[in-house]
Amino acid sequence: MTAPELWAEFTAHSGLDAEYDAWAFGDDPDSLAALVLAGVKTATASAFPLYALEGEALPEAGEYSVILDSRGEAACVIRTTAVELVPYRDISPDHAWREGEGDRSLAHWRAVHRAFFTREMAEAGLTFHEDMPVVCERFEVVWPRV
């Protein structure tokens, strides 16, 4: 199912008249989308400097997104519930737990995200550092693909 098809299904059911973004999670879209659908992953993080570089607005609470898998198929619709900027060095164990990856520990989160952010920033000609602001986004699933 495509993002527009899932969005149409959701809006027909909810009566909502809103816009949405469609995107996939970082390095492993299939596993991460599965964690979302299982209710384990309720948060994500992204490198703040890349938003400015790409001229992209930060996510905001109340916005909707269609989560895609690695083939571009729609997995679910989420609604952002909270967004905050936090320096990488200050990411909390609670946020790491909400991301739902690996053993859900802060140590695992730091290891995985340091590698991911370092690579992403380098591809953009930027350098990762511990003080880099991270966009911490919390969300809820409002329409799973069935």
Could you write a compact summary of the structure shown?
This protein has 5 helices and 5 strands; from the N terminus they run αβαβαββααβ. It is an alpha+beta fold and 146 residues long. The protein has a 5-stranded mixed β-sheet.
The CATH architecture can be given as Roll
Name the average pLDDT: 96
Largest sheet, in brief, is: 5 strands, mixed
Pattern of helices and strands: HEHEHEEHHE
Q: Name the structural class.
A: alpha+beta
The first-to-last residue Cα distance is 10 Å
The domain count comes to 1
Uncertain segments are: none
Question: What is the CATH fold-level name?
Answer: Sulfate adenylyltransferase
**CATH H-tier superfamily:** Sulfate adenylyltransferase
Radius of gyration: 15 Å
Query: What percent strand?
Result: 25-35%
Q: Indicate the CATH class.
A: Alpha Beta
Keywords:
146 residues, alpha+beta, Sulfate adenylyltransferase
What features would you describe in this structure?
The structure is a single chain. Helix content is 36%, strand content 28%. It has 146 residues and is of the alpha+beta class. It has a single domain (3-144), classed as Sulfate adenylyltransferase (Roll). Helix 4 crosses helix 5.
